[in-house]
Amino acid sequence: MPLTQAVAVVFTGGGRVYSFDPAGLELAWNEKVICQTAHGHELGRVVKKNHELDEPPAAPLKKVIRRATEVDHERAAENRLEAKRAMRVFRELIRRFELELKPVSVEIVFDGSRAVVSYQAETRPELEGIQTELGRRLGRRVELRGVGPRECARLCGDEGLCGTGERCCRRFPSHEQPITLRMAKDQELPMTSGRITGLCGRLRCCLAFEHPLYKSFRDRAPRVGRRVETPAGVGVVTGYTVLEDMCTVQLEGDARSVEIAIDETSELGRNGN
Predict the structure, then answer these.
(1) Is 103 helix (H, G, I), strand (E, B) or coil?
(2) pTM for the predicted model, two decimal places
(3) Which of 41, 117, 165, 257 has the fewest beta carbons closer than 10 A?
């Protein structure tokens, strides 16, 4: 049975990754495309070029309609301007209805038929009145969506704590697995909130992005204090340089410490063999 051809697409920065049928198009990373979705046509970005899925999809993949045109980009820009106006209206109505909630973002879907309005609230507010009035003022269907701290940070954007520009939750496609303290421990990070939590107050997304690299390294590397044989001689492991896939070895009978690739070390048994 032939494998299914697909491309991976995201529709918002850091959003969920979806698989689509490329419909005969050869698409490259970062190309903008128009896709058929459950909500109509949407403008997305390719984050993985044409590839074969390891397993057949549970349902037939929806198709990529075309590469985005200049007209499509102009429509998207108009939608962003309309979203800013919609946010101003949303803030005004929050004050009028005296609701205890935080406005987060407004997205106008590609065809302009619907506005997705995200908010954050400690309690469950009564939204029927504001939803009706907002729909009337905007002239389109309105979907109100409550979000948690992590999703709020992704939608708001801004710089991350590491000062490298956009937050990881917006720069990279979202990860599927939960983020856990074990990921921080495997990376030997200090268990202090300032080091392992992001601006959202939750565990940092980069813990999940970087964890596979650290786990692979730990699974292959000899432990600190173990005797190893290396091309430079026998010595004791005294430290690691994980990102370079190397360890530091103090050579026996020598004052030198050398950096050795993990794959060039061989751990010796208790009897030296």
Answers:
(1) strand
(2) 0.73
(3) 165
